[in-house]
Each structure stands twice: as C-alpha cells, then as structure tokens.
Design a protein that fits this description.
The chain is mainly beta and 390 residues long. It contains two helices and 16 strands. A 16-stranded antiparallel sheet has the order 1-2-3-4-5-6-7-8-9-10-11-12-13-14-15-16. The longest helix is centred in the first third of the chain and has 11 residues. The N terminus is likely disordered.
Length: 390
C-alpha cells in the first residue's frame, strides 16, 4: 500500500510557480507558491481498526509570505471491517483574518467495539489482546464540530501564540450485556453532549511547523465543560506539553515530547482517554500516545506520556520532476495514568512501546508508516497515517 500511496502523492502534487525562498529540508528549486494536492484511496490493515477502506485527501495552497501555507483543506471518508467510521472535513487558514489563524472541523465517528478497559494504570489485568472481545468494548457514535482562533499578540515573528475556541460533540453509548462497562457503569454511560470552551497559549520556536529540525514548542491548554457551554457534564481539564527538536547533524534530529493531562470534576468515562491542546491525543495506547499498545488501553483522569524519536533524513528524490524527502525513525514511547478510587501501582510502572518507521514527505504533506511493539506483552502493531506524531 505504501508505494502506491507515495506515487499518488507525487503525481497529484500541482506544479509550482514562480521561484522564491526554499522550504526547509528541500532542494533550492522548491518554491512557496502553487499548490500540493493529495488524493489517496485507501485499502489498508490497521492493528487498531482492521481492514480499512475509503479515501483521504488534502489541498495545500501556498503563497508568498504565507507559512507553512496559505490555506489547508483536509477531508477523509473511512470505513473499516471492525465497524469503525471516521469522516471529517477540516480547514486551516494560518493568516485568514489578518494575523489570526482560523482552524475548524466537522467530524463524525462511529465505532463498533470501541475500547473500554476500565480506569487506572492497572486496568483489566485479565486482558490477553483480543480487541474484538465484547467484554472490553462498547458501541459509540460521536458527531461533532469545533473551531479555534489562534494569533500572535506580539507580532508575527514573536514565539508567543494564544488561542480560544469551542468544541462540541454528542456521544451515544451502547454497552454490551456482559461488558466491563455494563458491570462498572461509570459516569457517562448514558452518553450525551460535551461542549467545551478552549483556551491556550504556546511558545513556539520551531524552524518549521510541519517538519521541524530545531527549536521547540511549549503549550498550556485549558478546557471547561458545563451547562453554559452546552454540556451534560461539569468538568475541567488542563494540558501541559513540551516538544523539543535538536539537530544532531545535517541528517539526524532528536525529537522529544512530554505531555501531562489532568481532568477534574464530573468527567464522563469517554473523556478519560482524551487530551486537550492544539494537537489532541488519545491514550494511553495508540498511534497518538504510546505506539505498540492497544488503543486507549489505559485511561483515567490524569495521563502522562513521553515520546522520543531519532529522525534520519535519508535522501531527497526527484520523481516525475517532484521533490520527495525520504526519512526513517526509531522511537521509544512511555505512558501511564492515575485515577481516583483505583490502584495505579508504583510510580515507576510505566507502559513502554518501541519501534521504527519510515517518513515520506513533500513540503507540508507527510506520510508516516510505523511498526511498534509493546515490551510488556510482546504484541505488535502497525500504523499508517499522515503527519509526524508530534
């Protein structure tokens, strides 16, 4: 699947126009005008979702002085053999309203056998890796929408960014008769709406937003959910995140991410696995938190995880006149959770995942293929998606 995907990315990329300054990591012939278009039919096997089929696409429109692009539009239609649907339409305008960046999305998710292992760092000790076992699952539907306005209050070159936004989602829950969810009946088993007011700030010194080699970004994010925001549940959350990139040589970069997410109040169980911030993650477990562990294997009110990647720039290729950057990574992920009222084990009992992967990129478009293994269980997982993990 990977080779056809890369060819489609290359062939769909629109020809660039007038020459300008080169983008980081690409040959001098690269420009900052024109467009890149991705149109990618998918028929893949995902360790978390089974055989998936559908289509994903993206349009990046570039313009002088617009970084990393002038407009970005992404869309996905996806179905899987395990009953997962994940459809979205997203927009990103880095300088749409003067200096303000507008980001927005419409989403619909439907999952048969969505994972639920209970709360805490030692949840479901009898689980043996069968993600189709109804004991550890429930059916979920979740249409939603969100928007965010982001700006630089001290000028376009200053590293401080702030944002405000709103997210709404309606979650339907259908629990199986003999599942852990039916037995435990945590808050949220009735489903309902969660409207969240979002506020945050970032200190961003990265040399490139989509494929950084140097610098970093620190973020603090707050989310508040209550009756005034259109939510059935009253809770609040705070996310602290640090991403750092150190260029070790002309081809080697060390990338590091630390994330701490804390929830307070009457938190529905389907929020235990979610984090806040500009880049929302799930976990602990899965392609956005700890690779190699089953998706959302460990969840709770407090989550912490760290990701370390050694990224190698292997080559720049010219295919059909288009520049493609080829890279490879090795990684180590660690994560754990804490939850009130349950045993979370000793402080040093973290859940690790190790592995490696391939990266293929053209300007803002990046294809990611990762293979990961849990060192606790020996189980292995594969992930194919777009963009760096962080």
């Amino acid at each position: 699947m990977l080779l056809p995907a890369v060819l489609l990315v290359i062939l769909a990329a629109a020809p660039v126009k007038s020459p300008s300054r080169p983008a980081p990591g690409l040959p001098p012939t690269q420009t900052d005008s024109g467009s890149d278009i991705i149109a990618l039919p998918m028929m893949t096997f995902s360790s978390d979702h089974g055989l998936s089929y559908g289509a994903v696409g993206g349009i990046y429109l570039y313009g002088p002085g617009k970084t990393p692009y002038a407009h970005g539009i992404g869309a996905q239609v996806l179905f899987s053999s395990r009953g997962v649907q994940s459809h979205y339409l997203r927009y990103d305008g880095p300088r749409l309203i003067g200096p303000l960046r507008l980001e927005a999305g419409l989403e619909y998710k439907r999952e048969l056998r969505s994972p639920f292992f209970g709360a805490g760092n030692l949840s479901a000790p009898d689980f043996r890796g069968d993600v189709d076992n109804e004991r550890y699952a429930f059916d979920k539907g979740a249409p939603g929408a969100w928007f965010r306005l982001r700006g630089r209050p001290f000028g376009p070159e200053h590293p401080l960014q702030s944002y405000v936004g709103y997210a709404w989602r309606y979650t339907s829950v259908d629990a199986y008769d003999h599942s852990m969810l039916t037995q435990q009946r945590p808050l949220g088993i009735e489903g309902g709406s969660t409207g969240q007011l979002l506020v945050g700030a970032l200190w961003d010194t990265r040399d490139d937003e989509t494929d950084p080699l140097e610098g970093g970004v620190e973020e603090i994010a707050l989310r508040v959910s209550g009756q005034a925001t259109g939510s059935r549940y009253q809770y609040a959350g705070i996310t602290l995140s640090e991403r750092r990139y150190v260029r070790l040589s002309s081809r080697l970069t060390l990338a590091q991410r630390l994330t701490l997410d804390m929830l307070f109040g009457d938190v529905p169980f389907f929020e235990w696995s979610n984090t806040g911030g500009v880049n929302v993650s799930e976990g602990i477990g899965g392609m956005s938190s700890v690779r190699g562990i089953e998706r959302n294997r460990f969840s709770g009110n407090i989550k912490a995880f760290t990701n370390t990647e050694l990224r190698f720039h292997a080559a720049n290729l010219q295919v059909f006149g288009k520049s493609m950057k080829v890279g490879a990574v090795m990684f180590l992920d660690l994560g754990r959770v804490w939850h009130p009222g349950v045993s979370d084990g000793k402080w040093h009992e973290w859940h690790p995942g190790i592995g490696g992967g391939v990266r293929l990129s053209r300007r803002a478009a990046i294809v990611r293929l990762d293979y990961a293994r849990s060192t606790e269980t020996g189980r292995q997982r594969v992930y194919v998606t777009f963009g760096h993990m962080f």
